[in-house]
Design goal:
Number of helices: 14
Shape: globular
Largest sheet: 8 strands, antiparallel
Distance between the termini: 37 Å
CATH superfamily of the largest domain: DD-peptidase/beta-lactamase superfamily
Helix content: 25-40%
Number of strands: 14
CATH architecture of the largest domain: 3-Layer(aba) Sandwich
Strand order of the largest sheet: 3-2-1-14-13-12-11-10
Length: 455
């Protein structure tokens, strides 16, 4: 199929007995789209016709964009701009899906799944989620909070005793670093909001931290290949970079939270989330590895030398902070569930009060080091952090359109989503563009979606 053809739909959900099986486009769909391409159908007309398909293949209603206050002509700018980026070889390709007011209004694949192999992007492409794994694991953990098995103020050591006594790296007036006992123990709350004193060794500029994380296999790639017990032992051995509870620092906190989920549930994180979230939500292509039958669907970055997790390998350690894979359609189901206040297709996953709690400000006046939550994840101010989500503080400051209270997260590999309760909007943007350019694309897609919204 030629690259860049639009509107080839696939089921947003698959039956459980068809789990992880690839959907196929019909011959009629392919022929129709080829005819339109050859006939020079205008982009707005193509957008208008193809962003919505038969309701029978979706698990919530679809609608023409204008029926929910969105301009199809302006929506077509998304494809045009992304195609320019692909043509300029700044990104391999992307998948974008949008719902508004509970209706699917846009679904588009642009560019290449694998540029080196000449494979066009498909809407069922599988992407490395990186940090977009965190909201999934955080929702799983909040299920245990709702069941009374965990409280936010619990010490992490209640469930992982090895973390009862932690050291903090301190620097004296002469710049010499020493280890000191932490003034208080980290809590479950700290893990959710990244105030536990943990960081990412790969990105740390502190030699002692980088060395300690390397020695204990806490760097992201090797940490996937050690056992959960070895991971927890490594966390216990390495010093904290900040006093718990005092400072926002993005890092391995949600990975530790994943091990709390394992300790409380008695299941591996992958099994727990599959049972409680992925299978009920019909997120058939979401998990912590890609089965061999679906390896041909894995989206790749432009440069193979980019250090991505090898999602073909069966992990020993399910990384709650960065180890997941998913498709745009799967993740959109998760987003719609959150936008609905914790329910989808008649099944409740969280209460509306829990969703509200998770998407509120949990940092207060705590500083962000080395950067604020928004700068760390979006390259923008104007955001705080909730329980697993970046949360917008107001309509201004951020420099991109949005509503107060919208929430989101982005992955190092180039994936991004946001949920705007005010606009009743959920957007999933999937690409594999690791590195500094990823935040440019987050801001770009946010502006492109916003300019298409009406009343």
């Amino acid at each position: 199929m030629p690259a860049g053809l639009t509107g080839l739909k696939f089921a947003l959900a698959q039956d459980n007995d068809q789990s992880m099986k690839r959907n196929r486009f019909s011959e009629g769909q392919i022929i129709e789209s080829l005819k339109e391409h050859e006939a020079g159908v205008s982009e707005p007309d193509r957008c208008r016709k193809h962003v919505v398909s038969d309701n029978s293949i979706h698990t919530w209603p679809s609608a023409q964009p204008e029926a929910v206050g969105v301009s199809p002509e302006r929506l077509s700018r998304i494809r045009a701009v992304l195609q320019q980026e692909v043509d300029a070889e700044r990104m391999p390709g992307a998948v974008v899906m949008i719902t508004r007011r509970g209706n699917l209004i846009y679904s588009e694949a642009v560019g290449f799944l694998d540029k080196a192999a000449g494979k066009p992007m498909t809407e069922d492409a599988i992407f490395r989620l990186c940090s977009m794994t965190k909201p999934l694991a955080s929702v799983g953990a909040m299920m245990l909070v709702e069941e009374g098995k965990v409280q936010l103020n619990d010490h992490v050591s209640k469930f992982l005793p090895e973390l009862a006594k932690m050291d903090v790296l301190a620097t004296d007036k002469d710049g010499k670093t020493t280890r000191e006992p932490a003034k208080r123990r980290m809590t479950i709350h700290d893990l959710f909001r990244h105030t536990a004193g943990l960081t990412y060794g790969k990105f740390s500029k502190i030699p002692e931290i980088k060395a300690a994380y390397t020695e204990t296999n806490l760097l992201i790639e090797p940490s996937r290949l050690i056992t959960p017990e070895q991971f927890t032992a490594g966390i216990a051995k390495a010093p904290l970079v900040r006093e718990p509870g005092t400072t926002f620092e993005y890092g391995l906190a949600v990975d530790v939270l994943g091990h709390v989920v394992e300790a409380v549930s008695g299941q591996r994180l992958s099994a727990f989330l599959d049972e409680r979230l992925f299978r009920p939500l019909k997120m058939a292509d979401t998990g912590f590895k890609v089965p061999q039958a679906n390896w041909t669907r894995i989206a790749e970055p432009l440069r193979k030398e980019e250090q991505f997790l090898d999602m073909k390998i069966d992990p020993s350690n399910d990384l709650a902070g960065e180890g997941g894979v998913s498709t745009a359609a799967d993740y959109l189901r998760f987003c719609q569930m959150m936008l609905n206040g914790g329910t989808l297709d008649g099944r409740r996953y969280l209460s509306p009060t829990t969703v509200k709690l998770m998407t509120s400000d949990h940092l207060g006046n705590r500083p962000g080091v080395p950067a604020s939550p928004g700068i760390s994840l979006m390259g923008l101010d104007g955001y705080t952090f909730g329980l697993g989500f970046l949360v917008r503080q107001g309509p201004g400051l951020a420099g991109v359109p949005g509503s107060e209270g919208e929430y989101m997260l982005a992955g190092y590999g180039g994936t991004f989503f946001w949920i705007d309760p005010t606009e009743q909007l959920a957007v999933v943007f999937m690409a594999q563009t690791p590195g500094s350019t990823r935040t440019y694309y987050y801001r770009m897609i946010k502006a492109l979606v916003a300019q298409a919204l009406g009343n």
